[in-house]
Specification:
about 240 residues; alpha/beta; 6-stranded parallel β-sheet; about 40% helix; about 15% strand; binds 3-methylbut-3-enyl trihydrogen diphosphate; binds magnesium ion
């Protein structure tokens, strides 16, 4: 197996961090313990991506559908965001730019403030862009883009026939970034669950039978290796 660094450089990767609850259940622990363990994995894997020279990493942390869960679980997840983002994640030394994807207006005011501060504070970092999708859904993101363009049409500054795919991309939360080359889903599930629907048009889907809290650096290398064996044709031959 070639060193993953040879293949990882320049890649944009999306990760659906799934399987925290099942990991906890297997151990007879509360689901929240799984989220805490998953937060540790998030840090390990984000640093690994940075070390591999990956320019864009997008992690799915909380979906617009995850509000359906018990309040206790949602609160525990939100608390973990605060703790991990505030103290635990060393983006400064690692030169990581942080961006949040999703509708943050629905989140706790203190958490929103922290998110805004992190984005501002890390805006000039050049090592890797880390997108953290929180209260994110691919469909709401597309609706938001449509509304923004419709607004320009209503104001008379844009003609409907002049709307292009590039303009749509520029109105996604990921404006200016490379679309994901592959989307990784641990935990054995084979679905997107509303993740990066616009951006995933030609992403390779790599699914792995490992629960997210058990996911290691070596698993990431395996995923990159698998991606590199795919034949991407983009509709050609
Ligand atoms: C992913 O793990 C974390 C979030 C969705 C916030 P899950 O909590 O979905 O874990 P499973 O799928 O129930 O095992
Ligand atoms: C997707 O996982 C959302 C995140 C990992 C944040 P879910 O566990 O919510 O997805 P489903 O319900 O299995 O589709
Ligand atoms: Mg799940």
């Amino acid at each position: 197996m070639a060193h993953p660094k040879e293949f990882a450089e320049g890649l944009s990767i999306g990760i659906i961090m799934d399987g925290n609850g099942r990991w906890a259940k297997k151990r007879g622990l509360p689901r929240t313990a799984g989220h805490a363990a998953g937060a540790e994995t998030f840090r390990t894997i984000a640093y690994r991506c940075r070390d591999l020279g990956i320019p864009y990493l997008t992690v799915y942390a909380f979906s617009t559908e995850n509000w359906k869960r018990p309040l206790e679980e949602v609160s525990a997840i939100m608390k973990l965001f605060g703790e991990y983002l505030l103290k635990g994640f060393n983006y400064k030394d690692r030169n990581i730019r942080i961006k949040f994807l999703g509708d943050r207006a629905a989140l706790d005011a203190k958490l929103q403030k922290l998110m805004n501060e992190l984005e501002e504070d890390s805006a000039a970092k050049t090592g890797m862009t880390l997108n953290i999708a929180v209260n994110y859904g691919g469909r709401p993101e597309i609706v938001r883009a449509a509304r923004q363009l419709a607004q320009q049409v209503a104001e008379g500054t844009l003609k409907p026939e002049d709307i292009t795919e590039e303009m749509m991309s520029d109105h996604m939360y990921t404006a200016g970034q490379k679309d994901p080359d592959f989307i990784l889903r641990p935990s054995g599930e084979k679905r997107l669950s509303n993740f990066m629907l616009w951006q995933a048009a030609y992403a390779e889907l790599v699914e792995m039978d490992v629960l997210w809290p058990d996911f290691t650096r070596a698993d990431l290398d395996t995923a990159i290796e698998e991606f590199n064996h795919r034949s991407r044709r983009f509709g050609g031959i």
